[in-house]
Design a protein that fits this description.
homodimer, mainly alpha, 2 domains, 8 helices, 60% helix, DNA-binding
Chain lengths: 199, 199
DNA sequence: TCAGATTGCGCAATCG
DNA sequence: TCGATTGCGCAATCTG
């Protein structure tokens, strides 16, 4: 059921020793043919692409537009996770490749916090459950946000129409008054009323 | 950005998300009931809740609001879907109930699509892969839609401010004209003499 | 009945 | 370290 992608050992190592992708991963994931589409995505570190996707509205649009037309095409097999039991293909092979010999050496000890991460462990289940709760919470939040935005757009549109109508009324009234004024000579010579025409 | 363009875009958007006006009202804060909140969700059939969630924006808001406080808590076991192999509880029993005798009768043959559904089968993998593609496509679409909605809301807000300013200008101009007219007798006072203020 | 489209969910990676 | 986000796959369901 669970599609574990990267072997847990490597996962531990990866999360424990975050290596700047741009420095250690001269990825160049062989942008040949079928894998090039994902390769583009990989050229951006997660933080970079995430920043584009989240904060920068325009940026998000740009990146999205680039991916939009192709992102739902089947992933290249090399980018897909292999079977749950089979050997895992790393998403960022370059990073791990360089150091896995060392980190997988017998002298290397995983940090204490990572030791108990086994799919069978209670620790793992606890973490998973906590994350699942966080995910549900986050998605609820997102749904509410989207809904509020939609409602706000609708309200703004309605208000917009009302304002347009109001402008039409005011304009017409203004025209009427201007017409009346144009028909009424300035006169006022009676008491020297200086009806200054300010308009 | 011209009004018409924004409006048309909004119209298009609104038509794809028809939200009854009354549902836009602020959601009622969910009557306090600890267990009733999830239960209420269950009382809605999938199609009903789906209709609310899709078409009725406000409805989704209501339902979501009710669940919001609890939805990210761990699901009760009874709320989880049964195992893939286990007997499925129909979400819309009313519909199928009426006909299940027929469809489950010996003379009824399970459709070909159901026969070959094994996780090992190529048919299964084919379907999964197609669905994965569809999912990616659908989510891309949703992302774009959300982005467009956000952008439209911003545009409408800006346009609204401009309209407000315009209304202020027109109102002031109107007041000025009215003032002028009030100061100016109804013309021809020389021979008419009846200078009645018409405004 | 069928195939694509949606949607809720869990997992893993990553962010903050 | 831990909750919050996000992309993804799965399964159930909807839709035309």
């Amino acid at each position: 059921m669970s599609d574990s992608r990267v072997s847990s050992v490597i996962q531990e190592w990866a999360s424990s020793y975050p290596v700047p992708a741009q420095t250690l991963a001269p990825p160049t994931p062989a942008p040949s043919g079928s894998t090039s589409q994902l390769a583009q995505m990989d050229l951006l570190s997660y933080s970079q692409s995430a920043a584009l996707l989240r904060g920068g509205g325009g940026g998000e649009d740009r990146v999205s537009e680039q991916m939009m037309g192709l992102s739902y095409l089947p992933y290249a097999a090399s980018c897909l996770s292999s079977g749950p039991g089979g050997p895992q293909t790393l998403t960022r092979p370059c990073v791990f490749f360089c150091f896995q010999d060392f980190f997988l050496s017998p002298t290397f000890r995983a940090p204490a916090t990572k030791r108990s991460i086994t799919k069978d462990s209670a620790e793992y289940r606890l973490r998973r459950e906590r994350n699942n709760i966080a995910v549900r919470k986050s998605r609820d939040k997102a749904r509410r946000r989207i809904l509020l935005t939609q409602q706000r757009a609708l309200q703004l549109q309605e208000e917009n129409q009302k304002l347009q109508i109001r402008i039409g009324q005011l304009t017409q009234e203004l025209d009427t008054l201007k017409h009346i004024l144009s028909q009424r000579p300035l006169q006022g010579p009676v008491e020297g009323g200086s009806a200054g025409s300010s308009i």
